[in-house]
Design a protein that fits this description.
The complex is a heterodimer of chains A (about 60) and B (about 140).
Chain A: E1 2-3, H1 5-12, H2 16-23, H3 27-34, H4 42-52, H5 56-59, E2 60-61
Antiparallel strand pairs in A: 1-2
Chain B: H1 2-11, H2 14-42, H3 47-74, H4 77-106, H5 114-139
Helix pairs in contact in B: 2-3, 4-5
The chains are: A mainly alpha (about 60), B mainly alpha (about 140).
């Protein structure tokens, strides 16, 4: 699954570490999410969407 | 060296840092109790005393395992996936090795001592857990 996390994080001027702190996850998790190596659970996906103020479907884009 | 250790420590998640801090005391107690067990086993103590000293380190391990279970509850979902994956692989590898050893002993093909088999299985468990955990961390890095 593709996502717009890196783009939105950089737009906010946050480092991966800062985003990790805000979401209460490890920096490794943020990196794995941004590089598409790991897809988040539904609760984490909702937390990310809420933090960026975006609808979940505009953040996570399924690969066809 | 100190800078490298500091950078490594800062790269860890808060849950993992808490776990490492919480496991220092049980590790020290475990080491002390193993030394006491060695002394009791070699100095001709009574069987109940030797049994007590032999099982002491197991209690320290249980203390450490409690800290590990707390870490599993505290960590984030990717860390938990990595830990559970490593535990599952390690358990599977050791189960296969234990059954293989049991059947080989039963068939009379090998004549290993129970002490050596138990020690090797413990080592295999720890080594396979560490290797798979490292591999999974690299995979998600």
């Amino acid at each position: 699954m593709n996502n717009r996390m890196r783009e939105l994080r950089e737009a906010q001027g946050w480092s991966q570490g800062e985003l990790a702190e805000r979401l209460e996850v490890s920096r490794q998790t943020i990196n794995a999410l941004e590089t598409g190596k790991y897809d988040p659970s539904l609760p984490l996906a909702f937390r990310i969407a809420r933090l960026f103020g975006q609808p979940i479907e505009s953040l996570f884009i399924p690969e066809d | 060296m100190t800078r490298l250790a500091t950078r490594y420590w800062q790269s860890l998640s808060p849950a993992l840092r808490r776990y490492y801090r919480a496991s220092v005391a049980p590790c020290l107690v475990f080491t002390g109790l193993v030394v006491l067990h060695e002394w009791a086993a070699r100095s001709g103590q009574s069987a109940p005393l030797r049994a007590a000293f032999a099982l002491g380190p197991v209690l320290a391990m249980a203390w450490m395992f409690t800290a590990y279970l707390r870490f599993l509850g505290d960590c984030d979902e990717l860390e938990r996936r990595i830990e559970l994956g490593a535990l599952a692989w390690a358990a599977g590898i050791v189960l296969h090795a234990a059954i293989g050893a049991l059947l080989l002993l039963d068939a009379g093909v090998v004549a290993w001592s129970a002490r050596h088999v138990a020690a090797w299985l413990c080592l295999l468990l720890l080594a396979s857990y560490a290797l798979v955990r490292g591999w999974l961390h690299r995979r998600y890095a």
